[in-house]
Amino acid sequence: MKVIDKIVHWARLKSPWILHFNTGACNACDIEIIAALTPRFDVERFGVQLKATPRHADILVCSGPVTRQIRDRLIRIYEQMPEPKFVVAVGTCATSGGVFQGLYNVLGGIDQAIPVNAYIPGCPASPMAIIDGVVKLLKSLEESE
Amino acid sequence: MTDAETIKQKLEAKFNYLKGSVRLQREKRLWLETAYDKFAELFDFAVKELGFSFLCTITGLDEGENLGYIYHLAQPGGIVLNIKTRTKKNEPIKSITAYFPSGNIYERELVDLLGAKVEGLIEGLRYPLPDDWPRDQYPLRKDWDAKVLEKGSYGEMHGENVQMPIGPKQIKGPTSFSIAHKNDVTLPIGPQHPALKEPESFSVALRGEKIAGVELRLGYNHRGIEKGCEQRSYIQDIYLIERICGICSHSHSTAYVSAVEEIAGLEIPKRASYIRTIIAELERIHSHLLWLGVAGHEIGFDTLLMYSWRDREAIMDILAMLTGNRVNYGINQIGGVRRDITPDQVPQIIKVIETLEEQTKYYIQLALEEVTLIQRLSGVGVLSKEDVLRLGAVGPTARASSVPRDTRKDDPYAAYAEMPFKVITDDHNDVYGRTIVRLGELMESYSMTKHALINMPDGPISVKAPRKIPAGEAVSRYEAPRGEDVHYIKSNGTENPERVKVRAPTLANTQAVSKMLEDRYLADLPIVVAAIDPCFSCTDRSISIINLENEHEKVMTWKDLRDYSVEWYKKQGVDFSKMKRRQFP
Amino acid sequence: MGYALFNIFIFPGFLFLGVISLVAEYFDRKLYARLQNRVGPPWFQPLADFIKLLGKEDVVPEEADKKMFNLSPVFALTAVMTAFFYIPLWGAQAIFSFNGDLIVVLYLLTIPTLTFFLGGWYSRSLFSTIGAVRSITQLFAYEIPLFVSILAPAMLANTWSLSEMAAYYNSHPWFWLANLIGFGVALISLLGKLERVPFDIPEAETEIVAGSFTEYSGRLLAYFRMAIDMEAIVGASLLAAVFLPFGLGLSPVLGFILYLIKIFAIIALLALFRTVFARLRIDQMVEFCWKYIAPIAFFQVLLDLVLKAFVIR
Amino acid sequence: MSKKPWIHPGKMIEFVLQSLFKKPATVNYPFEKMKMPEKFRGKLIVHPEKCIGCLICMKDCPAKAITIKKIGDKQFEAEIDLGKCVYCGQCVDSCPKKAIEITPEFELAQIDRNKLKVSYNAKPGSPDSAPDKA
C-alpha cells in the first residue's frame, strides 16, 4: 500500500482547501486573506480554494484574538472539520492577541482555544506573507510524511 | 455672529439657569450641563425648536458615586450640542427612543457596560457583552477589575436568563425549531458564514423564501477597546484605536488624534492636515473599490470581485510606499504626521489615479448596463428618506436616499474646507442607489486627491506634543467611507485618557438593516447587509429585533426553547420528548 | 462479447467518461481563471481534488438518515454514467440504441437533481434543506424547456431514437440549422441543470453555504462532484448529438476529434456564462424561464412542424 | 444618470475576452521574490550596543513586544517577540539613541511559536555580536 499512501499524500498537499474564520479581528487580515485569492496573488495556482463549510475544508485560516463570545463557535467549527485538518493563525492578533492583549473580553491568540499548526505574524499579514506561511506549512507537512 | 452663537443666545434666553454656563469650545461645538430633572425639557426644546435632528451617540461616564451621561445632538449644518447630566448610580433614567428610535442601542450599551437603569427600553438580547457574561459585572466602571473572570474560564454561567449557553455544555436540540411562527423555519446565519466577512449572527425567521423576522446578535467582535484605552497612554492608544477596524483605520486614528489636539490646544501645520486629507481620500478609494468587489461576490458576480480588487492593488502599493504599511498606516501622531510625501512620489500617485479613473468609468458603465447586476440590486433593501431621518442612517446609505448628510461638508476637519468636491446623492433609495453613490464618490476622491497633491503647502509636518494632556474633553466627527464616525475623549491631565468613546458608522446603519430586510427574500439578505458596507469590528455592538407582527419577543432560556418545540411538534403529531439526546461528556 | 465489455468499461465507457470529465473541469476552471485575468489551477488539480476527497474522513451527521445520505451520491453517479451509452458520440451509432432511448436519456439526466434533493433533505441541516427545496423549484423551471427544445429536432427526424436522429440528419445535411433556436434554449437549461452561475441558486455560496452539499465531506462529496462533472460532459455531448449533428460520416479518428471540439466549445460557452453573469434570485430565475425560455422552445417546435408539413414532403 | 442607457446582458463579454489574450496579472510569488517598497515596516533589528537602557521603547510599545534586560554594566539584551509586535515603528521613533532599526522583511511565518522570539544581546567585550538568528 506504500504507493497509494504516497499518492494520497501528494493529493493532500496539492489541493489544500481553506475555510476562513474571523474570531473578532479588525478584518484587516481577513481582507488580506481574500486579497490572496484575487488576480495579483491568485493562490489557486497552489490549488487553494476558499470553501464555505467546515465539512469541505482542510485548513482553517483564522484571524483575530478570539473574543470570549466567539471562543465556543471556534471550537465547534474546528470540531466539525473532517480529519487531516490544520489551523493557520494569520496576523499578530491570532498569534498572540497583538495590541488587544489584556483586554477583558479577549483571550489573546488562537492557540488559547484550538491547536495551531502555523503562525503568520504581521499587522496585517500581507497576502505575500500569507502565501509564504501556507507554503511553509505544506513544506513542513511534506517532510513530516 | 455665527449661528452657533445664535443657538447659544436662544438657549440662555429660554432657560435662565443656563446663563453663562453654555460653553462654545470651538466653532460648531456647544457644551452645557444641567441637572437631570431639568434635562427632559431642555432635550425636548433642543430637538423640537432648535432643529437638532440627529443623535450622534450617548456617552456614559463613571464619575465616582454617580453616573454621567452626555447626549451628543447634531444639526444638519454640522453644529453639535453636547448636553451633560448626571444621576445617582442606581437612579433610573428615561429612554429617549421616543425622539430617536436608533437610541436604543446606545442605551442598551449603557445598561450593559456601565450598569445604568433605563426605563422604557424594550427587552432584548444582551449587548455588547457575551451571553455568558455574569450579569452584575460592569466592565467600564472604574472600580471593576478583570480578576472576577478568573473564576471559571468565563466566569460563572448563572443568571436567570442566560440565553443559549454556547459551548460544549450545550444540549443539542432539534435544529429546525421555530420561535416566531408556526410555519416558519429559524435559520441561523453566522457567526461563520461565507457571506459575512466578520462574525455576527442573524437568526432569520423564514416563511418559504420570504424573511418574516430578523434578529441580529453582534458582540462577537467586542474586545473591550474603550476599557483598554483607559489603561494605556495617549501614544499607545493611537495604535489601539487605529486597529478598531482594518479598512477604515485612518478614520479612527484621525478622529482620535484631532480630538486630543483640540483638548491640548495644538495647532497642527497646514502640510500635516493636507497629508491627512490625502491619506483619508486614498483610504476611501481603496475602501470603496473593496466594497464594489464584496458586493459583486455577495450576488455571485465573482468577476467584479476579481477585477475591482486587482485594480485596488495599485492603491495598496501607493499606500505602502507612502505610509509603510498596506493597511493600519500609523501615519498620524499627536501634533501632525510621521512621514512626509516627497515631491518625487507625487507623479507616481497621479499616474496610478489616472489609470484608476478610466477603470472606474468602466465600472459605472457596467453598473448601468449589466442586466443581471441591475436585477439583483434594484428594488432591494429599500430605505425611504423619512426612514433615514428617523433611524439615523449615515454615509452612502443615507446619501442614496437623497439625504445630503456628509461630515466633510457640514463639519469640515483636516483640510476639507479648502477641497473642491460635491456631495453625491441619489434618489433610488435602494442598494442600486448605494452602488451609484459609492462609484460617484470614487470619482470625487480621485479629483480631490489630485487637487490636494498639486497645491500642498510646504512647511513642517508635525508639532511637538506634550506627553501629559491637560484636563478637558472634546468631540470629533469624521466622514469614514461608511459614514460619520464620532469620537468623544475626556482627559484628566495624566498620561492616560479618562474616557474614550467611539461610535462607528456601522452602528448607526445597523438600525436601518432591519428596516430594509422587511419581507425581502433570503437571497437578498447578504447583499442588503453588504450594502451598508458593515464593519462590525468597528461596531462590535448593536442589536435590533424586528417582529413584523410586533409580537412581543420573549426572552427564552434554552430549556424553554426545547420544551416549546417539543409541544409544538407534539401538536403536529410527532412526539420528540422521548428522543434520545446525546449528553456531552 | 469482449468488445462490448471494452466499450462499456474502457473506451467510450466509464474510464473515458471519468478522464474526460476531469479534463473538462480543468478546462473550465482554467478558462474561468484566465477570463478573470489570473493564472488558474495546474493541470492535475481536479485529479488531486478527487483523490484528496477520497482520502478524507467522511463525516455523517448524527441526525441525518444514514441510508439515504450515503446512497444519494451513488445514485447520481450511476444515473449519469448509464445515460452516456445511448448518446452517439461520433458517427451515427451509439453503443446501445432502441426506439425511445431519447426519453430514457432525458430522464436519466433528471435523476442527479433528484438525488441532490434527497441528499440535501436527508442530511437534516437547515442550509441543505433549503438548498434541496431550491434545486427542486429550479428543476421545474428549466426541465420543460429542455424537453421541448430537444423533442423538436426529434419530431423533424420523425423518431425517438438518438442514433436514428443522427442518421437522419446525416442524410439530410443543413437541416440541423433549423434547430439553432432550440440549441440556445437547451444551452440555458443545461446551465440550470448543472447549477452554473446565473442559475447556481441551490448552492449559492453566500446565501446558504453550500446548498445540499453542506453536510457532505470525503468520499461522498467526491462522488457528488464527479457526478456533476460527468453530467456536464453527458449534457454537452447530448446537445452536440441533437443540435450539431454535422460531420458524422468522417473516419472514426477525425470524428472523435470533431466530437471533442464540439463538447469543449459547449463547455467554453458555459464557462463564459459563469464569468459574465451575476446569480439570479430563485423567483427571477423561474420567472425568466417561464416568461422567455419556454415560449421560445414552443416556437421552435412550431417551426419544425411547419418545416415538416410544407418544406420536406 | 437620467437617460436610460441601452441595457444589454453580458456587458462584460468584450472586456473579459480581452483579458484572455493579456498576460495574467499574477505575480509568481514564492518562485520569484517580491519586494515591498523600501520604507515598508517589517521586521525590527536592534543594535544592543547603542542601547542605554532608558526603557522608553518598552513604555511606548502598544503590544508589549520588546523587553530590555540588563546583562552587564552598560550592556543590554533586547528581546523582540515578533508574534506580539504590530510593526508600527513607534519604538523606532521614540528611541533617543536610534538603537532600533526597521527593515522591510515581511516573510516571518513560523511553524513553532517560540521561533518568533528573537533576541539581540551584546556579549560583554564583543562590539557587535551577530544576533542569534531565529
Please explain how this structure is put together:
The complex is a heterotetramer of chains A (145), B (585), C (313) and D (134). Chain A is α/β, with parallel strands linked by helices and 145 residues long. Chain A has five helices and five strands, in the order αβαββαβαβα. With 585 residues, chain B is of the alpha+beta class. In chain B, 39% of the residues lie in helices and 16% in strands. In chain B, the strands form five sheets. In chain B, strands 1-2-5-4-3 form a five-stranded mixed beta sheet, covered by helices on one side. In chain B, strands 8-9-10-16 form a four-stranded antiparallel beta sheet, covered by helices on one side. The longest helix of chain B has 29 residues, at 270-298. In chain B, 55% of the residues are buried. Helix content of chain C is 71%, strand content 0%. Chain C is built from twelve helices and no strands. In chain C, α2 (14-35) crosses α10, α5 (101-122) runs antiparallel to α6 (126-157) and α6 packs parallel to α12 (282-311). Chain C starts with a helix and ends with a helix. By secondary structure, chain D is α+β, with helices and mostly antiparallel strands. Helices cover 14% and strands 19% of the residues of chain D. Chain D has a domain at 36-121: Alpha-Beta Plaits. Chain D contains three helices and five strands, in the order αβαββαββ. The longest helix of chain D is centred in the N-terminal third of the chain and has 9 residues, at 13-21. Chains in contact: A-B, A-C, A-D, B-C, B-D, C-D. Chains A and D meet through α4, β5 and α5 of A and loops of D.
Task: List its traits.
heterotetramer; C: 313 residues; mainly alpha; D: 134 residues; alpha+beta; two-stranded antiparallel sheet; 3 helices; 5 strands; disordered C terminus
**Main sheet of chain D: which strands, in order across?**
2-3-5
Instruction: Describe the main β-sheet of chain D briefly.
Output: 3 strands, antiparallel
What oligomeric arrangement do these chains adopt? heterotetramer
The radius of gyration computed from the alpha-carbon positions of chain D, rounded to a whole number of angstroms, is: 24 Å
Strand and helix map with partners:
The complex is a heterotetramer of chains A (145), B (585), C (313) and D (134).
Chain A: H1 2-14, E1 17-22, H2 28-35, E2 49-50, E3 59-63, H3 71-80, E4 86-90, H4 91-96, E5 118-120, H5 127-143
Parallel strand pairs in A: 1-2, 1-3, 3-4, 4-5
Chain C: H1 2-10, H2 14-35, H3 45-54, H4 66-83, H5 101-122, H6 126-157, H7 162-171, H8 180-193, H9 205-208, H10 219-243, H11 252-276, H12 282-311
Chain D: H1 13-21, E1 44-46, H2 56-60, E2 66-72, E3 75-81, H3 90-94, E4 100-102, E5 117-121
Antiparallel strand pairs in D: 1-4, 2-3, 3-5
